[in-house]
Each structure stands twice: as structure tokens, then as C-alpha cells.
Amino acid sequence: MQSFFETHRYLIENLKVPIRRKLMDQIDWSHRLIGIKGTRGIGKTDFLLDFAKKTYGTDKACLYVNLNHLYFTQNTIISFADQFRKTGGKTLVLDQVYKYPSWSEELKYCYDNFKDLQIVFSGSTVMRLREENPHLKEIVHSYKLEGFSFREFLELKTGLSFDSYSLEEILKDHESIAKNIVDKVRPLAYFDDYLHYGYYPFFFGNGHYAENLMKSLNLILEIDISFLRQIELKYLPRLRKLLYKVGAESPFQPNVSKLSAHINTSRATVMNYLYYLRQARLIKLLYEGEESMQKKPSLIYLHNPNLIYSIKSGEAQKDILHKTFFYNQVGSIHELTYTKEADFKVDDKHNFLICDHSNLKKNIKAGSIRATDMIELGSKGNIPLWLFGFLY
Fold first, then answer.
1. Packing angle between helix 150-158 and helix 188-197, nearest 10 degrees?
2. pLDDT in the model for residue 104
3. What pLDDT does 166 receive?
4. pLDDT under 70 in the chain at which residues?
5. What are phi and psi of 19, to 5 degrees?
6. pLDDT value for 206
7. What are the CA-CA distances from residue 361 to residues 77, 104, 354 (Å)?
8. CA–CA dist 244, 215 (Å, integer)
């Protein structure tokens, strides 16, 4: 136990978190069992440590533990949690729970029997906490940690503070909102940088961003998806080939029969693989109407613009980058569906067109809203694209 406290203290004392993530204020920390899901490389560990530091400092009432530690090959979460609480522990922070075989059953036991203990844990987005662990369904409070929004990226780059806004606030009052922001900073001076390297936290660390992102991407395929979805490693090249095919041509209109022939597997397996890639936050599936795992998506996008630079060869097309940005930022909070009337339908009521600033005079169908690049301030029915990066 002492060695874990020493590691905890070292991590807390050397933690460098440049901004407070908005999710930190959205979580109800009074619950006794809290799960934080996020894709690999998104900053879950730093998020957990930031919570521990802000709440407890180096007080031994809180302890961060990585369940990848060899200690847990011979010892259980239950016995560790019991010892921790008996020696004054109040909050146990468990990282990478999916590396521990019976994690969900033991967390349930701890919740039922250790009423004086709070457990906060992290896991992969490939995990389906409630669907695959029904015994946790009524007791766990699950949250998703997204990558940096454009708003958070601006804060990191400028040292300034900006409010976030709901979609309805932006639709109703985007002109004054944008003016307040532009009075502080020129957002378009940072927008292309965000599209290239602003979504993942690698950009303020050491090392080459693209190389770090590629390493993370490969670990997602090799560990998160293959391990959690029990895909034999000999089939990993098929998964990689599918991701490259989809990514290189996104937004991609899938032909499942051709894809199955391309990666030499069945149609059903292709659909499963697409679903796993979506869970891993590598792609987004855009459906017409209600979605289901058995239904073919209308279009497939990469999850965020940074992945376009990582997966696609050659220069990235601006219209694809901008559509991917909109889908990523708005889709993190709202439901987006396919429509022939526009690029996206949001919450089944707003049609959005992602427009080039040079085509502002182009006629569009009544009721559609323009999200336009390279404008600082908008006008009626014409909203700056960058402003949709202020939703969280």
C-alpha cells in the first residue's frame, strides 16, 4: 500500500494540467461510483489526477491506482479497497479498469459493502458499461471525456478564458457571442492549427504530434478493440485495412459487399468492425433516420480532423476538414443524421450546410443554416463555422 501512496504523491506533485476541463464541473462528484470513459490518448489519467489533486491534494484519503500494475495479478480490488478504507481512505481512483478481469463484479461488491468509500474509475469508450454490465446499470454514473474543443484549444494557446454556449444560444444570438470573442482574440488565426493538431493533448507535451497520434491509434486497434472485443490478432490487419480504406476516402459512402471483399471477410464482420471503430472514437457513422447496428450508415466520417492528417495521404481538403470539425464538435452533444437537403440534420430539426465563405451568395433551400468558414462574424442564417467549437 505504501508504494502506491508514494506513486500517487509523485504523480500529484508533478502533474501539469494547463486548463480545467469543462467535464470536471459537469460531474456530480457526490456519487459513490463514477465511471469516466474516453478514447486512448484523450487525457483520462490526467483528468483523474486533476480531480484527486483539486479535491484532496496529497492527503492520503484519496489514492490513484493503475490496475495495470502487476500487484493486481495476485490481489483483488475488493481486498485492496477494504484495506484502503480501513486505514482512512475515502476515494479510490482506479485507472484502466478493463485490464482487470472481474472489475465490474468487484466494483459492484465494493459499492454494496463499502458504504464509506467512493470509487472513481476510467475505461475505454469501447467498453459498454451499462449494456454489458447490467449489475452496474443502476449504480454507476458514467461520463465521457471528449478531446479538446476549439474553445479549450484557444484557452490553451492564448491563456484567456472563454464561456461555452448551447447550440440554441448560438443559433439565437451568434452575432453578439462571436463579437464578444473576436474582441478578445482572432479565432481564425488558430483555427487551422486546431484542425491539424488541437483535439488530443499531445500538442502541449514532448514529442512529435503526428507520431504520438499514430502510436495511440495503433494501440487502440491492437489493445482497446482487439482485447475488449476479443478479436484474434491474426485478424488485426483486416481491421487496420478497413480503417485506412474508410479514412482515405471519408466522407465515405459504404458498399458493404465491396468492403467485405476488400478486407476478405464477411458482411456481418465488416458491420461489426465499423461499429467497433465507432466505439473507439476513430470514425463516426452518419445514418438516415434511426440508427442500428444492422443498418448500413449513409456516410462514414473520421472522428475528428486531426485523424484526417494522420490517416489520409496528400493534402487534406478543406471542405472535408470543415465538415468533420462540425460533426465532431456538434456531434459530441447532439444527434446528427443524414439528409439529402443539407450536409447534416441536427436533433431532427435543424438542417446545416457547411459552406465556403466565397459562396455566400449561393442560394440554399429555405430553412437551412449555413456554418461558414473564414468569417469572424455572421449574419442571419449564416454562422461562423469556428463558433460551433464553443459548445463545450
1. 110
2. 93
3. 98
4. 360-366
5. -140, 160
6. 72
7. 63, 56, 14
8. 15
Q: Scanning the structure block, which residue is given the C-alpha cell 453578439?
A: 176
225, HSE (Cβ side, Cα atoms, 13 Å)? 26
Residue carrying the nine cell digits 484557444: 154
Closest CA to 161 of 282, 20, 265, 61: 20
Which residue from 123, 116, 112 is spatially nearest to 42, judged by alpha carbons?
A: 123
Give Rg (Cα) of the chain: 22
Joined grid coordinates for residue 281: 472514437
Contact 27, 34 (CB under 8 A): yes
> What HEC string does the chain produce?
CHHHHHHHHHHHHCCCCCCCCCHHHHCCCCCCEEEEECCCCCCHHHHHHHHHHHHHCCCCCEEEEECCCHHHHCCCHHHHHHHHHHCCCCEEEEECHHHCCCHHHHHHHHHHHCCCCEEEEEECCCCCHHHHCHHHCCCCEEEECCCCCHHHHHHHHHCCCCCCCCHHHHHHHHHHHHHHHHCCCCCHHHHHHHHHHCCCHHHHCCCCHHHHHHHHHHHHHHHHHHHHCCCCHHHHHHHHHHHHHHHHHCCECCCHHHHHHHHCCCHHHHHHHHHHHHHCCCEEEECCCCCCCCCCCCEEEECCHHHHHHHCCCCCCHHHHHHHHHHHHHHCCCCEECCCCCCEEECCCEEEEEECHHHCCCCCCCCEEEEECCCCCCECCEEEHHHHHHCC
Residue with cell 462514414: 300
Give the amino acid at 20: R
Beta bridge partners of 63: 92
pLDDT value at residue 364: 64
Give the whole-angstrom CA distance, residue 176 versus residue 377: 9
User: What topology is assigned to 2-144 in CATH?
Assistant: Rossmann fold (3.40.50)
Each domain of the chain, given as residue ranges in start order, spans 2-144
